[in-house]
What does this fold into?
Amino acid sequence: MEAICGNRKDAEDAKDTPREIPTFEVLELLIQLVDKSLVVAEEGHAEVRYRLMETIRHYALDKLRETGEVEALRARHAAWFLALARRRIENGREQNRRSGWNGWNRER
It folds into this structure.
């Protein structure tokens, strides 16, 4: 965390107040990580997927374990994806309402 934020105080502040990275910055940051060989870009059929190098992933997990915050981070990660799923479900319901689709109750 210190290497990313600069010093221990900045690291503590960043940990407690995560910020949303604007979408346009994400690709730029990923490219920088690929250039530094910290992230691997894998081209698939119709998309590029990014993943951490295994050694970097293990190192980061070890460092996270040293802080004792693995479970807290996992809980934040799960909460973020749960919120994403709920937004997607609600967006789908709204689109269905606008289109007049009845969902499972429609006659066959």
